[in-house]
Design goal:
Blueprint lengths: L7 E5 L2 E7 L5 H11 L5 H12 L8 E7 L2 E13 L2 E14 L8 H15 L4 E5 L2 H4 L6 H4 L2 E2 L10 E5 L10 E5 L10
Parallel strand pairs: 5-6, 7-9
Antiparallel strand pairs: 1-2, 2-3, 3-4, 4-5, 4-9, 6-8
Length: 192
């Protein structure tokens, strides 16, 4: 896994934003960002997922990134591995969750977190990155439903139009849908 303390820096008004790998010491900051970023109807569930992914032990590694401004965590995202049982050489990840403190939205923090994660995963020779989210937001990073339709998510989706993927490496030629399995933290139907 590439080691880095800072992947990107941008000016946010008079503050400097820093993107870095999350550690166990970021537990409270990650929880606060996710609680603030999501509506009350889902913020506890998503916050619990974010914290669980922080301590998820996987091979390959689950990656959690935080964005800091003035020493405070203002954004968070995680990338966890997914598998295809039929292909032992398949290397895929899923982006979930992505949270930005409402007071820091519209400042490209989410975009910077996503782009930093994509760059990291590309260096690891990841084949494909999935996301289950707003197509209007994620298409700007190259995500599409076309790439994702060849893969069946681990659970039935409440909003199937949100299932998207972007190819990062070699594309296999499989034409029939391949079933994905995910890390334990994502093995909850209510997340899908």
């Amino acid at each position: 896994m590439p080691q880095a303390t800072c992947f990107a820096q941008d000016e946010i008004n008079s503050e400097t934003m820093k993107i870095r790998m999350a550690t166990d010491l970021d537990h409270d900051g990650i929880q606060k960002v996710n609680m603030r970023a999501f509506p009350e109807s889902e913020n506890k569930l998503i916050s619990k997922l974010a914290i669980s992914l922080l301590s998820e032990k996987t091979t390959p590694q689950t990656i959690s990134l935080v964005a800091e401004a003035d020493g405070m965590i203002v954004g968070h995202t995680a990338f966890s591995p997914v598998r295809v049982d039929a292909d032992k050489h398949f290397l895929g990840y899923i982006l979930a969750p992505l949270a930005i403190d409402p007071n820091f939205q519209k400042r490209l923090i989410g975009s910077t977190l996503v782009k930093t994660g994509i760059e990291m995963l590309s260096t690891l020779k990841v084949n494909i990155l999935f996301v289950y989210g707003d197509p209007e937001y994620y298409t700007r990073f190259g995500f599409s439903t076309k790439e994702a339709c060849r893969y069946t998510p681990p659970y039935k989706l409440q909003y199937p139009f949100g299932w998207q993927a972007v190819m990062l490496g070699e594309n296999d030629t499989a034409t029939s849908p391949l079933s994905l399995t995910c890390v334990d933290s994502l093995c909850h139907p209510e997340l899908w």
